[in-house]
Structure formats: structure tokens, C-alpha cells
Q: What sequence folds into this?
């Protein structure tokens, strides 16, 4: 199937891009294209115009600030995977990048695209939630930062306004010692959509007390989500097996998965608890 | 399963030394494929070529109320729109392809384009040809179809109920087979134990990388010429029949096929292309999208198989009663024969004296099912090898020991009473595969380790009552190079290369001096289908015969020129040389199998100037003397009559390949994930014409079988596909499974050239039952259906928690 | 504007083209005659259409031709010819890594990208690097061996050999034609 016809707009700067988004509300932004071009070919969407962000150099790359790492929205998954700053400062994100699609897709797919596409199974979303990342939106009206936990609103839906461009993803520096883990269960070892995925981060004191826990789930609800109840089972308490089991149960209870061709809701709910438990066990080791 | 298995020593067998055959030479087609110069069916273009699309049914069961193509026809740039109304007599014959002189089964033909009733999701309804692909796609959107859904039947069991909607005939029965051997009642009475189990298998998609494609045009003689990726160039006859043309007015030129696995055995794009080329008198190209390939092509048959087996305490099987139900989908295609294969191989490579098998294939409003590597054999094997392990478990007997007691041996008979005439090295294969697994991986409380194996047998060559034949032409040019002309489709398994290696062996030339022209129904002698693991056997023997005639001319002339007896002349390395009686007698066979060694021996024993002549010189002299330097040979398989209609007894195939596969798995009892840790396959290939290619067949067949075991299922819900692309229908990637270690055994007893057996299909068969048995070993509980999804395995793991695992040393 | 003017450098040759906005790089390359780039799914699931885009292995079905404007593209026939095959191509042929051959161009290009970045990969790295290229025939065993063999041959070769010059191409002094993926 050929792609449907569309007008292709190719702005060279962020300024041009937000002008286009403002003047052409019917246009859709094209990032890496690994999701959008598939949707177009399947006729799941047929916008009259695409705004290709590939020519905007400012949207690519990773920079380190005093309080955060800033990742340009058009940075590819492969670039993130191999980036020393990501490996050092956000290894959880690097781990999620390593299980993203296939090596071929990783050379095209972008972090911004993954955020905006808003799949419930979005590969990077649990890691971004666990890292407490923020998404930077720009428009002719200005700029705003939205915490990842507030970005996703449903399958394919985000808080992004039609005239807004995702320009960067910000990951705050973490103080103290954090353990982390990424667990993904797919139906194949490579290039598979998650049936369930879990990203966790734990801040642990020397005495074994868990100061803070972040537990994020993918593919088990209409959006990627953080599970406050599971986090509360751990935060401020001694890190112990019973707490971990409690958190895992709370996570499984909190999800609202669907039956689809990949797995049943019951299986997803059950397995996400296992993944949370295992992820917490691994993160607990890392934080110690 | 016993931890230590010793390979059973091989019986004495004779393998004469050879020079070209038996070497892992670079395949003749490999480099062109590596540099991208091989042109596949979808790569061709013609001047003034149109692009075609097929309009397909959006539902699985319905009545066409209205089909209006006026708007599509009116679109500028659309050259032609055809519907069933334009071709009232166009039927797609779905009987055994490429066959001559046999009456087709009545009522088995599908309409080329549906006119009133649609029976499956994706059934073709109209054809469009336009100046561009984009226009053709747009024209599809302008076709006005009103279709009234009608109640469908989506389960073969329900299809056989009296009040089921009728998809085929008046009872939905596409085929039935009945096999009766010995006295089952008596065999069951003799048994100490009767074990009964039911096994189920899903639809599976071939998922070759190359979607169906072709280009057709009328040549200057108005011959409809179709360049297409196909396993069967003889479909020119099927096309002629559909179009009402004489058979000599249709020509099929086969291209290198980007994977077939049975699905390009059926007609794919050929008739559509022929109709459009005839209607427009312009070249027309049709390339399926991946989604269309999934919708339009056959699937592997879902089966439900029940075994009831009587067995003595000693492990001797006394009787087997087997029922099989297969889903034929909306049209018969090759279902009757797939069902026959499954039926006749239902008892596995075991001697069972008392057998009753009843099988039926039922029509449903599901994807049609037809040939897929193994042709019913893998489904039969999943059932009989799972059942063997269940019997062993019930008897508390080692699974290998149970099989040892029952393995079919040379001279014994199959379920249909056919005598095994070649080596039946089941135990030799199984013990080697098991021994190669090595030390068992340690397990943890959540990661259980299991081992399993399967012994299988699979026919090669077509059903002998089809009276199968193949032809090949072999000639030597004046410079000593060799040309083969043979209509063999190369579907990637190295069919063409094998023929070249055989000719090189017979004519004593290096492989690179052999060229092959293949797969043109008008210009290359018809070789029959690249299916049924038959080409090495059939066309290999035809090449062997043809090359033998050319060789005789060369040897005769060389003997004259060298002043020796013909029996003293050897052809090797492009030369005729005098065989030294001394060196031939004393030369160890291991050395003589190497060209270099052979040369050295010859040079040492005789002066090169007097005792060797280049084949180019011999060929020139032979030609001048009127000796034939080219020959067209026909090889006939054994011809038999059909099976006894009452008992299903009789011969069906030329011969069988025996093999085994052993695997070790780790099962995560909390997620149901199965990780394959080790896999070893061992097959007796008779003689490996090219060991690297033979290994590739087994490694690749194993991988497909492992996918069948662990991840592949073409999901259909109420007739509608739920796995429309390669993002939902997952096939294994490079990281999913470790390599299958391949052990080649060569009994030299096959009916192919130099004692070769066929390996293309047998390679796939044991993988899935081996995995199923390993998972059952790990959990103590069996999953009775494929694929072994995480959810099913998890359920079995839950059930297994309450089961005491048998002592590992039973 | 539905048409775009673009420049593509494919296997060392520069093409000035006008392409439809909705034309994929895959369609465009094939229309230019580069039918060695295969189409297997059009959705990035199979890897048959892999090309090197500025040295990176990408699925050309998921790239618009207009997005590749100005890029250097290498297809499998840009690596070598039957007369002068690239060591990777020879290794695939020698190792028995090729059966039907439809996945081969993509696999060879993924291998090229891997070995350019990592000349001595482990088996796990090889498998990972080709995990986006589906093969239905071989089971990958001989493909992994071919990649190893290619790595060994390239290492023993020392410096890269000069690239093959395709028929009809002229190597100009100011614009040396080198093996794809190594363009300046």
C-alpha cells in the first residue's frame, strides 16, 4: 500500500515549526516516522499535511545542565542508547532504549516521537516516569514543562495542544544513591511490543531504609502509569521482601489491562506483579 | 529422561568416494544473491506496464448484493476492471498441481473471482489494472460493494454438525481417509494399559520474506507469458484452463523464489495477471503487500488429533486408534492430500501391528489451508511424539527406551502397510541428538529445566499413484563447460545447485564450469513441482541419467584417444585421465574424495602428457564423431495404484527420511516464558550432496519448527484475521533461539542420486514435539496445544505445582 | 507542494530528483533501478529494505524520500559486484548463509553497519545487530557464522580495499568513489 497523499512541510528551525503548527492545525508532526508512517500506510490516519522535524538541528542531542539532562526530542533511540551521558546519568533510560524495536528502527525512532505517539505500551514511558522526567512543549504562545506523569491521557492522547511541539525531554539529576531496574515481557526477544513492562527506581539509605520508590508500568492500562500505592508500600520503610510483595500486589491491583491478540488481561495483571517484584529485587541490590 | 545417552553405533554402510558431491561448496546461486544482482519476480518491469490490485472481501461469510465497478472504471488512468461477471467460467483448479492425465476432483474448484457468495475474509472479488500503483489503489476505493453477512462456520467440529452453514458440498466434508491394519480390538485387549490424549495445532503462516509477485504480458505469438515466483511452473496448465486457452498458449517463467515453504505451490497471482494482460494487451504487474499475502495465501492446517494407544507393561505398543480433524478453510486446495499425509504418518516411525485411523477435513469460513513444509507431517508428529512421552510417563519408562522397543525397522511396514526399504536410523539419530545435549543446566525454584526429544519420519517424493516424472537436459559445450536445462524452481533450498553438483560429479568438471537454465515452462524440460521434498530425488536422478549418457560419449572417445579401455578412463577436474589400476585399488577412499589428492595420485603414476586429455579436446572429437554430447532424460518415480478403499492399505511414497531432535528448555514458572537453551537435530540424509546446504536445510527447518512450537499462531476470530502483519504474526529473530546443532548421518540408502534422501520437509518436523516434550518434562504437566504460549505454559506450571515430578533417573 | 526536489547520493552516484511527498525512500530507490533493495512488509517489521543512510542501517520503507534529501545511501550492490565482491558478501556466500536470498541484502547491510562500528563483535553483538532482519530460511546459524567470517577476513585484510566501481560510473579525481558507507 502506498502512503496516502499529503503535503510535506519541512521547517528548518523550531521557530518555523511552531509557526507552522499554529497556522496549520490539521498538520501532524513527523519525527522518526517509525510509528506515523505505519499508521499512514494502514490508513489509521490521513492528515492533509505532515511537518517533518528532521531538519531542525536544535532538536537533536543531549546536553547536561546544573539540575538536569536535556534530550532533544528528535534524538534517536540509537543515539540515546550509545550516549555516555545517558549511560552514566540515566542508565534506566538506556536499558529501555536497548529493548526498543529493532536496531533498524532505533536508528530512526526518536524519544519525542515515542512520547507523543502515546502508545499504552510506549517503550520509553515507564523509564521516563520512573526518572520523573518532564516534557518541554513549545508553541507560538510560549513554553511549558509538563511532568511525565501528567503527559499521557489515553491511547494516542497526550496533554500536548495541537499547536505545540515537543522540543525536549528533561531528566532531573538524582541526589543520593538510587537503584533501578527495567523489566519488559514481550512475545519475542527482539522487536516486540511489550505485553507488560516495569521501570523502578529506589533511593536507599545505608541502613536499608527506602527513602523513595518510583514504580512505573507499561502496557497494562490505557496509559503508562506510576503506582502511588505500590510506591507507598516501600517509601520510608525498611526495604524487605514483605514490602516488595506488597508493592507488587498493589501494582497488579492498580493496573487495568485489556485482552488483545498478544495477551489476556488476566495474564498481564498477573505477570506485571512478577515483573515489579523482580525489578524491585534487582533495584534493591543496585541501591545498596 | 536418562542423563547419559550413548550414540548407537552405525550399522555397516557403503559410501563410495566422490569428488564434487559431498563437499560444502559455495552454492552456484549464492554470490549473485549476496551482491544483489539476483532479480526476483517483483523486480521486473516492462514497457507500458500496468499495475494491478485485487479487490477482496472484507468479511468472511456473505452474499454479494451489489457490485458496481463503474466509478473505478471511469477513473482516469484505470485501464481495466474485471469482476466475476466478466469471466463466468474462470475457475481455479485446486487439485494436485502440475499433474497431467488425472481427472480433477469434482466440485473442488474455487471461482477465480467470487460472484455471489464469499466464503473467507480476503476472497478475491475484482481486479484492477491502472497506469500506476497509486491509481490502482484508488480505484479499489471506488468499487461499490454491498455485501450481506451470512451466518458462517468458524470451527471444523461445528462445520460437521448437520445444521451447520454449508461452505462446501452438502456436509462440509472436504476429505476423509480411513486406515485399518491388523485387529485393533484384539490389540487393545492385549494391552496392559490404554493411554488416550488429544492434541491441537493452530493456523500457521508461511511468512516467506518475498510476498507473491509477477509480471505478465502477451508475446508476439499471443502467448500469455507470466514471470512469477512459483514452486510450480506447470501451473501454465491451470492458467490455460481458467482462461479457456490451449495449454501451449500460456508460458510460465519462474524466477528465483524468495521463500515458498509450500504456499507458492498454489496458484497465487498467475491467473489474475493472465486475465488482465489478455484484457488490456499490455504488460501487467501485481505484487502483494504483506497484509495481502497473509490474507490471500494458504495456511498450515489446524488439526485436532486424538490418540488412543494400547501398550504392554514392557513398553510394546499393541494397538493405536487415532482420529484427526483438520480445518480445510473455505476451499479444498490440497487439504485431501495434506490430510492423507497426516493420516498415513499418524503412527510415527513405530511398528504398530494393529491400527485404525479415521481422519476428516472440514470446510469452514476461515483462511484456506494447503501445503506447508511437512504437509500434515508436523501435525501428526506433534501428536504421536507427545503421546509417546505420555505413554512413557504412564509406564514410568524412559522415553528413549519406550521408543527403542517400538522403532520401525527396515523391512517392517507403516500404518498403510508400506514396507520401509531404506535405512531406518531412528535410534541412531535420537541417541546422537540426546548425547550432544551434554550436561544438564542447573535449575532454580522459578526456572525449571526440561529436556525432550522427538523421533520422526517423513516421506520424500510425491504420492506414487500420481505417477510422478521429471526431465532434465544435460550437455557439454566445446570448451568442456556443462549446461543443464531443467524446469526446476529454486525456492531457496539449493535445488539448482544440487543439480549442478551432480552433473559436475558425473562429468568430472569443477562446479564453476556448470551452468543451469531453470524454470521456464516453454524452454526448459518440465521437472515438476519444487514441493514434497522431491526435486533432489526426481530431477537429481534425471540429471544423473542425462549426464551419464554424455559421460558415456566422453569416456568412449577419450578411451580411443588415450588408447585404453573405457573402463580405465576417469573424468576429473575437466580432464579425462587414465585410471591407474594400482592406485585405484590401493588409494584409501578418504583421500580419493579430495580432488587434489586424486590429481597427485594420477600424476605420480603416469606421465601427464600421455595419460590425460582436456575434456574440451574430447568433446570436440566426440562431436566430430557424431557422439551425443547432450541428452534429455526422464526419471520416473515408482508408479503404484491408489490405496485399498476399504482398508487404506498400500504404498504411498517412494521412501522416507528418519531423524530426531533433542532440546533443553528453561521454563519460567512465574511468567510462562520458555527459553530454548540447547537444540540438536540429527537426520539420516542418505547422502549429503552439499553438506553446507543440507545443514542449512536442517538448521532453518528446525528454526521454523521452533517458531511453530513457541510463538507462531495465525489468529482468526469469526473468520477475521487478528494477526494481519509481521508486527502481530511473530516469527523468530536472530536472538530468540540458539542455533540448532546439526548432525548429518549418511546411510547412502536413499532413492535419490548417490543414495541421497530428501531433507527439506523432514528438517522441520521433530522440532515442535521435542519442545513440547521438554516443557512437559520441566513442569511435569503437558500443554496439549501449540503454540506453547506464555499463558498456556503458566497455567501448566500452576497445575504442575501439585504434581510430584517423577524420579529423574526413571 | 506535493512534489519535492531532492538530491540523493546512491552508491556513489548523485541523483537530482523530483519526488512525490508521499514517496518512501524504498519506492524511490527501486524506481531508480535499485531493485536490490527488497520490499518485504513496508512497515519496518522485516528488515528486507535495509539501506545504509549516512552509514546507519535503516528500514527504507519508513523513511520518506524527502527526509533523505542530501543523504548518502548505500545499497547492497554498492558494496561490491560479482567481479569484485565485498568481503562481507563473499563471507555470506561462503558460509552457506544464503538460501532464498531475499533477506540477504538487508542482512549484509546490517552487518556492514555493525562491522564499521565494531570490527570484532561477539556472537551476542552479532545477533543483536541483525535482530531487525528477519530470515525465514536459515535459522540464522550460518548468517552469524558469515558475520564472524567477514570480521576475520576484514581484520586480516588490514586496510579496507578500494571500493568497486560500478559499470557506467566514472571515478573522478575530485570525487573518489569509495565503498559505500565510507563516503567522505
A:
Amino acid at each position: 500500500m502506498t502512503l496516502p497523499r499529503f503535503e510535506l512541510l519541512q521547517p528548518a528551525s523550531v521557530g518555523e515549526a511552531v509557526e507552522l503548527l499554529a497556522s496549520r492545525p490539521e498538520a501532524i508532526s513527523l519525527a522518526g516516522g517509525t510509528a506515523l508512517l505505519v499508521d499512514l500506510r494502514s490508513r489509521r490516519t490521513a492528515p492533509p499535511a505532515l511537518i517533518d522535524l528532521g531538519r531542525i538541528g536544535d532538536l537533536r542531542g543531549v546536553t547536561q545542565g546544573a539540575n538536569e539532562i536535556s534530550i532533544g526530542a528528535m534524538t534517536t533511540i540509537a543515539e540515546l542508547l550509545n550516549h555516555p551521558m545517558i549511560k552514566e546519568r540515566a542508565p534506566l533510560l538506556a536499558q529501555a532504549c536497548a529493548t526498543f524495536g529493532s536496531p533498524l528502527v532505533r536508528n530512526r525512532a526518536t524519544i519525542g516521537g515515542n512520547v507523543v505517539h502515546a502508545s499504552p505500551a510506549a517503550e520509553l514511558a515507564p523509564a521516563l516516569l520512573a526518572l520523573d522526567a518532564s516534557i518541554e512543549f513549545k508553541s507560538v504562545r510560549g513554553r511549558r514543562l509538563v511532568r511525565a506523569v501528567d503527559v499521557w491521557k489515553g491511547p494516542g492522547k497526550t496533554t500536548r495542544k495541537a499547536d505545540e511541539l515537543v522540543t525536549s525531554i528533561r531528566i532531573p539529576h538524582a541526589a543520593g544513591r538510587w537503584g533501578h531496574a527495567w523489566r519488559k515481557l514481550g512475545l519475542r526477544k527482539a522487536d516486540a511490543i511489550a505485553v507488560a513492562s516495569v521501570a523502578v527506581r529506589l533511593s536507599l539509605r545505608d541502613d536499608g531504609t527506602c527513602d523513595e520508590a518510583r514504580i512505573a508500568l507499561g502496557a497494562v492500562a490505557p496509559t503508562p502509569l506510576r503506582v502511588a500505592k505500590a510506591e507507598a508500600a516501600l517509601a520510608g520503610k525498611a526495604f524487605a521482601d514483605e514490602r516488595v510483595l506488597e508493592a507488587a500486589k498493589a501494582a497488579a491491583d492498580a493496573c487495568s489491562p485489556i485482552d488483545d491478540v498478544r495477551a489476556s488481561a488476566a495474564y498481564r495483571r498477573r505477570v506485571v506483579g512478577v515483573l515489579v517484584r523482580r525489578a524491585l529485587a534487582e533495584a534493591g541490590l543496585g541501591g545498596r | 529422561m536418562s542423563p547419559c545417552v550413548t550414540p548407537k553405533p552405525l550399522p555397516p554402510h557403503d559410501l563410495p568416494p566422490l569428488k564434487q558431491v559431498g563437499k560444502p561448496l559455495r552454492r552456484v546461486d549464492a554470490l549473485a544473491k549476496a551482491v544483489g544482482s539476483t532479480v526476483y519476480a517483483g523486480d521486473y518491469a516492462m514497457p507500458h506496464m500496468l499495475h494491478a490490485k485485487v479487490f477482496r472481501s472484507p468479511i468472511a461469510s456473505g452474499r454479494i448484493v451489489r457490485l458496481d465497478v463503474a466509478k473505478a472504471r471511469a477513473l482516469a488512468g484505470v485501464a481495466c476492471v474485471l469482476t466475476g461477471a466478466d469471466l463466468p467460467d474462470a475457475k481455479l483448479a485446486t487439485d494436485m498441481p502440475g499433474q497431467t492425465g488425472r481427472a480433477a476432483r469434482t466440485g473442488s474448484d474455487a471461482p477465480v473471482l467470487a460472484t455471489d457468495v464469499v466464503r473467507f475474509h480476503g476472497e478475491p472479488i475484482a481486479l484492477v489494472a491502472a497506469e500506476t500503483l497509486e491509481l490502482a489503489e484508488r480505484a479499489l476505493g471506488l468499487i461499490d460493494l454491498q455485501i450481506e453477512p451470512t451466518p458462517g462456520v468458524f470451527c471444523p467440529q461445528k462445520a460437521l454438525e448437520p445444521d451447520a452453514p454449508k461452505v462446501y458440498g452438502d456436509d462440509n466434508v472436504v476429505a476423509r481417509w480411513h486406515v485399518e491394519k491388523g485387529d485393533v480390538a484384539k490389540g487393545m485387549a492385549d494391552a496392559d494399559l490404554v493411554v488416550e490424549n488429544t492434541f491441537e495445532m493452530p493456523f500457521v503462516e508461511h511468512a516467506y520474506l518475498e510476498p507473491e509477485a509477477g509480471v505478465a504480458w502477451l508475446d508476439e505469438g499471443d502467448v500469455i507469458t507470466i514471470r512469477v515466483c512459483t514452486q510450480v511452473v506447470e501451473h501454465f496448465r491451470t492458467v490455460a484452463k481458467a482462461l479457456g486457452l490451449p495449454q501451449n498458449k500460456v508460458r510460465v517463467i519462474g524466477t528465483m523464489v524468495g521463500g515458498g515453504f509450500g504456499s507458492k505451490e498454489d496458484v497465487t497471482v498467475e491467473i489474475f495477471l493472465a486475465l488482465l494482460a489478455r484484457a488490456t494487451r499490455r504488460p501487467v504487474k501485481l505484487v502483494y503487500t504483506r497484509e495481502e499475502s497473509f490474507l490471500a495465501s494458504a495456511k498450515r492446517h489446524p488439526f485436532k488429533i486424538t490418540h488412543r494407544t494400547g501398550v504392554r507393561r514392557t513398553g510394546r505398543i499393541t494397538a493405536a486408534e487415532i482420529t484427526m480433524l483438520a480445518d480445510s478453510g473455505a476451499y479444498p486446495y490440497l487439504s485431501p492430500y495434506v490430510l492423507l499425509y497426516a493420516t498415513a504418518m499418524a503412527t510415527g516411525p513405530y511398528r504398530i501391528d494393529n491400527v485404525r485411523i479415521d481422519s476428516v477435513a472440514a470446510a469452514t469460513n476461515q483462511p484456506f489451508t494447503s501445503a506447508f513444509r511437512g504437509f500434515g507431517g508436523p501435525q501428526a508428529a506433534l501428536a504421536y511424539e507427545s503421546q509417546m512421552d505420555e505413554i512413557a510417563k504412564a509406564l514410568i519408562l524412559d522415553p528413549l527406551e519406550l521408543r527403542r522397543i517400538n522403532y520401525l525397522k527396515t523391512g517392517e511396514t507403516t500404518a498403510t502397510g508400506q514396507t520401509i526399504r531404506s535405512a531406518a536410523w531412528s535410534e541412531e539419530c535420537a541417541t546422537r541428538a540426546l548425547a550432544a545435549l551434554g550436561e544438564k543446566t542447573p535449575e532454580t525454584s522459578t526456572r525449571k529445566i526440561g529436556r525432550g526429544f522427538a523421533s520422526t519420519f517423513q516421506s520424500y517424493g510425491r504420492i506414487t499413484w500420481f505417477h510422478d516424472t521429471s526431465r532434465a537436459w544435460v550437455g557439454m559445450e566445446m570448451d568442456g563447460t556443462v549446461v543443464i536445462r531443467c524446469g526446476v524452481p529454486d525456492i531457496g533450498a539449493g535445488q539448482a545447485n544440487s543439480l549442478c553438483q551432480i552433473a559436475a560429479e558425473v562429468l568430472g568438471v569443477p562446479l564453476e564450469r556448470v551452468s543451469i537454465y531453470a524454470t521456464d515452462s516453454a524452454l526448459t524440460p518440465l521437472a515438476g513441482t519444487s514441493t514434497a521434498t522431491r526435486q533432489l530425488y526426481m530431477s537429481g536422478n534425471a540429471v544423473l541419467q542425462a549426464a551419464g549418457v554424455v559421460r558415456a560419449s566422453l569416456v568412449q572417445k577419450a578411451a580411443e584417444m588415450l588408447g585404453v579401455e573405457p573402463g580405465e578412463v576417469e573424468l576429473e577436474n575437466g580432464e579425462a585421465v587414465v585410471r591407474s589400476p594400482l592406485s585405484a585399488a590401493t588409494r584409501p577412499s578418504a583421500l580419493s574424495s579430495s580432488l587434489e589428492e586424486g590429481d597427485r595420485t594420477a600424476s605420480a603414476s603416469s606421465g601427464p602428457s600421455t595419460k590425460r586429455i582436456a575434456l574440451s579436446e574430447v568433446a570436440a572429437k566426440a562431436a566430430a564423431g557424431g557422439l551425443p554430447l547432450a541428452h534429455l532424460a526422464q526419471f520416473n518415480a515408482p508408479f503404484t495404484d491408489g490405496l485399498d478403499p476399504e482398508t487404506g492399505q498400500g504404498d504411498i511414497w517412494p521412501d522416507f527420511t528418519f531423524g530426531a531432535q533433542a532440546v533443553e528448555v528453561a521454563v519460567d514458572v512465574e511468567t510462562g516464558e520458555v527459553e530454548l537453551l540447547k537444540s540438536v537435530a540429527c537426520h539420516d540424509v542418505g547422502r549429503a550432496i552439499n553438506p553446507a546446504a543440507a545443514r542449512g536445510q536442517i538448521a532453518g527447518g528446525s528454526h521454523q519448527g521452533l517458531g511453530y512450537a513457541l510463538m507462531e499462531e495465525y489468529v482468526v476470530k469469526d473468520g477475521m484475521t487478528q494477526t494481519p502483519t509481521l508486527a502481530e504474526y511473530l516469527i523468530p529473530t536472530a536472538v530468540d533461539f540458539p542455533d540448532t546443532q546439526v548432525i548429518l548421518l549418511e546411510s547412502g540408502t536413499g532413492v535419490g542420486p548417490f543414495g541421497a534422501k530428501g531433507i527439506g520437509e523432514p528438517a522441520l518436523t521433530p522440532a515442535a514435539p521435542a519442545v513440547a516434550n521438554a516443557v512437559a518434562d520441566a513442569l511435569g504437566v503437558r500443554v496439549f496445544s501449540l503454540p506453547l504460549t506464555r499463558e498456556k505454559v503458566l497455567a501448566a506450571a500452576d497445575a504442575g505445582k501439585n504434581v510430584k515430578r517423577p524420579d529423574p533417573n526413571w | 507542494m506535493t512534489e519535492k526536489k531532492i538530491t540523493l547520493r546512491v552508491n556513489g552516484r548523485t541523483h537530482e530528483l523530483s519526488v512525490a511527498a508521499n514517496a518512501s525512500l524504498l519506492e524511490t530507490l527501486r524506481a531508480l533501478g535499485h531493485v536490490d533493495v527488497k520490499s518485504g512488509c513496508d512497515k519496518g517489521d522485516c528488515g528486507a529494505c535495509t539501506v545504509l543512510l549516512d552509514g546507519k542501517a535503516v528500514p527504507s520503507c519508513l523513511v520518506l524520500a524527502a527526509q533523505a534529501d542530501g543523504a548518502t545511501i548505500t545499497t547492497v550492490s554498492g558494496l561490491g559486484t560479482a567481479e569484485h565482491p565485498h568481503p562481507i558478501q563473499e563471507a555470506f556466500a561462503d558460509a552457506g548463509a544464503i538460501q532464498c536470498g531475499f533477506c540477504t541484502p538487508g542482512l549484509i547491510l546490517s552487518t556492514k553497519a555493525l562491522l564499521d562500528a565494531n570490527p570484532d563483535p561477539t556472537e551476542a553483538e552479532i545477533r543483536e545487530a541483525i535482530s531487525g532482519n528477519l530470515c525465514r530460511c536459515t535459522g540464522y546459524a550460518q548468517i552469524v557464522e558469515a558475520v564472524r567470517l567477514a570480521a576475520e577476513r576484514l581484520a586480516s585484510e588490514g586496510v579496507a580495499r578500494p571500493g568497486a566501481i560500478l559499470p557506467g560510473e566514472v571515478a573522478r579525481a575530485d570525487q573518489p568513489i569509495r565503498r559505500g558507507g565510507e563516503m567522505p
Remarks:
- The first strand of chain B starts at residue 50 and ends at 56.
- Chain B is about 30% helix and 25% strand.
- Residues 100-104, 583-609 of chain B have pLDDT under 50 and may be disordered.
- Residues 535-562 of chain B form the longest helix (28 residues).
